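[Meeting: bench + compute handoff]

Bench side (C.D.) handed over the final construct sequence. Compute side (W.E.) agreed to return the predicted structure before the next meeting so the bench team could plan truncations. Sequence as handed over:
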Amino acid sequence: MKKITFLLIALLASLPVSAQEWILASEGNDSFYYINSNVRKAGGYYIAHEKCVPKDLSAERNRLVREMHDNKFYRYVYSVVTELVDIELFRTKSLSFAYYDTNGNVLDTWECENEDWRYAKPGTILEGVCETVDYIVNGSATISHPNSYSDKDVADFKNGLLQSSRKMAASVPVQVNDYQTLIAVGVLQNKVVYKYKIKGWNGSIKMTKEETEQQKQLEIENTKRLEYADMYVECMKRTGFSTQTMFFTDKHVYIGGYTIDYKDFVR
């Protein structure tokens, strides 16, 4: 059973919200940004890998082919930037770029020279990157003031969640890594359902209760450290909003999953 647990952790390493290896740092208009949990100290700074996953993969591929003048970018899936991060001043400096295909092979890469420091401004993707590295290094994450929002604030936030989820649904399937693919996103009035396909998983082996709970707790802990965590939990409390995550084999055999709602944050 321990072998199965280790396999599960390896296969699900890059889940957007419950990742052990890649942690969601920020969401832009066109992409999702993740930070690898393997952050290394370098003098007074930290070296971190930032993964960019486009929401509209087809459009991004076309843009890269057009700008790079190379058809190999039709195989592009995501990019990774190696960053030097200063968590004291919240600034970063890019060290290298790499583009990857579906199989995790490098399509193109280059080193950055004479890059200037970029300072994070409030509410930006860069701030999310710095906060995530700070969280990985120091483990600072709290839900601070969950009762300080108006009903309109909460309603607007929920609508934003649903709209963002609908955009994500329009971009599936999205391959997260060599083993795991987001195959569907269902958006209901008060719930968002995420369905993932796990490559190579034996359909006769289901996730155990312990394995399911482990993945659920990873997602809860990652949610708590998000910049908008307090609003997210308040939204669940007042509106009954919840999320459901489901895992399937290549042959669409259900192997496990879980639901997260407000009570999971007040245990």
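W.E. noted at the follow-up: The chain has six helices and 13 strands. C.D. will use this when planning the next construct.
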